[in-house]
Amino acid sequence: PGAPAIAAVVVTAGVGVVMLLAYRRFLRDADDLQRKIQLDAMALTLGVATVGSVVCSGLQAAGAIEDVDI
């Protein structure tokens, strides 16, 4: 990998860390109901993404679908 690719990864990681810190500050400042709604939505999203990726990997291993890059 060249220097531009490494720089792009570093910039992306930096933006991601800043985004996570901003979201943490948002959750800390939110009221109880908003915090609960946000955390419930994140839990559901994590569950759906995990199950979806496991199912996709299983179908890929069984040869039912083409090579999928998740």
Note down, in words, how this protein is organized.
By secondary structure, the protein is an all-alpha fold. It is 83% helix and 0% strand. The protein contains 2 helices and no strands. It has helices spanning 3-29, 32-62. It is flat and about 50 Å long. The two termini are 21 Å apart.
Oligomer: single chain
SSE run = HH
Tally of separate helices: 2
Instruction: Give me the Rg, rounded.
Output: 18 Å
> Biggest β-sheet: count, sense, barrel?
none
Query: Helical percent range?
Result: over 70%
Principal-axis shape equals flat
Instruction: Work out the number of β strands.
Output: 0
How would you classify the helix and strand content by structural class? mainly alpha
Mean pLDDT: 93
Please describe the structure with a list of short key phrases separated by commas or semicolons.
single chain; 70 residues; mainly alpha; 2 helices; 83% helix
Short description:
By secondary structure, the chain is mainly alpha-helical. It contains 2 helices and no strands.
Would you spell out the secondary-structure blueprint of this structure?
Layout lengths: L2 H27 L2 H31 L8
